Amino acid sequence: MNRVAVFLGPSLDRASALAVLPQAELLPPVAQGDVLRAVARGCQSLVVIDGVFEQTPAVWHKELLFAMSQGVRVIGAASMGALRAAELDRFGMEGVGWVYRQYAEGLRDDDEVALLHTDAELGYANLSVPMIQVRHVLAHSPGDDPACKALAALADEIKARFYPGRTVEWLHALLLARGHGRAVADAVLTRLTAAEYSVKRADALLALARAQEAPAALALPVPQTLTVFMQRLVRSLGQASEPPPPRQWLAQALAAQPEAPAAPLAQQLVSQWQRRQGLPDRTSVEQFLALRSISKPDFFAFFKACARLHGQAQQATTAQRERTRAFTELI
Predict the structure, then answer these.
(1) What would the DSSP string read from start to end of 269-295?
(2) How many CA atoms lie within 13 A of 158 on its CB side?
(3) Which of 9, 85, 176, 213 could form a disulfide with 76 if both were Cys (CB 3.0 to 4.6 A apart)?
């Protein structure tokens, strides 16, 4: 059975999550190191919904990339998961839902999904309203609706307030202070706080449903070299600090394409990569590879595989070619 770990907090209650994905291992909001622990336990799929930040170090992008390099499927939605998915979807992380699409289409501020909430013992109850919920209500309400008009008029003021201060009490007082009646204020707060209107809840349910489905396409493995910081994190978790052998992902990449002349294009890709990395000559390239324990045969074999994916259009999907381009930047 596919072992699925779900990092979940205030976006969705546990009972609703298990109703969709009964086999899920429900974990607290993801923090730095949690993804590596899940991979070490043998989890085959990760669903990242909620995550911590600020007082506790947030999950690193490199952790998620490392998980994918080990063949682990990673899905993100609703909150921290949506943010990370928008940043890593080109490497194969699957983004799901409305919040993810907003970030993928240009939304940048991480405070959009941030909110104040209680701890696990009190059920991760929301104590403030995330800005993304305000945007969702405005995007899905008729423009002539009194509650929508009232909320739209205050959107900039709500955005300007630090996220823990966007409480129900403050919002209610703000609506009344700006001359809106109690009925309108109550209608606004219902749409901002009721479960049936919650965009995070809806997106979390979509992500859990996605985890039940087979992946749309098998992603090429992400070549990973553990940075000094990742090695320290891995050691602190008591795991082996050695990166996966380059030949492991090279073999998979090479096996994906038949033999074909690739030398000219491979050399072109290497030259482009050198320019991006600021490596002007052979010596600087050799030093770069030595620091990362990548042999020259492995290095050039990988770029030949890249060239095949670029050149064999009928056998390589657009997503595969795009990931290949992204991989050359990653290493």
Answers:
(1) HHHHHHHHHT--SHHHHHHHHHHTT--
(2) 29
(3) 85
Cα distance between residue 88 and residue 94, in whole Å: 8
Closest CA to 183 of 145, 157, 237, 153: 145
Contact 5, 42 (CB under 8 A): no
Give 163's DSSP letter.
G
Residue-wise pLDDT for 48-70, tens only, equals 999 998 878 899 998 999 899 88
Bridge partners (DSSP) listed for residue 67: none
- Which whole number is the average pLDDT over 186-208? 97
DSSP string, 47-105: EE--B--TTSPPPPHHHHHHHHHTT-EEEEETTHHHHHHHHHGGGTPEEEHHHHHHHHT
Which helix (H) or strand (E) element contains residue 185? helix 182-193
Q: Looking at this protein, which amino acid is placed at residue 115?
A: L
Read off the pLDDT of residues 306-329 as tens digits, 9 standing for 90 and up: 776 655 544 555 555 555 555 555
Rounded CA separation 163/130 (Å)? 7
147 or 217: which leads in pLDDT:
147
Return the pLDDT at 54: 82
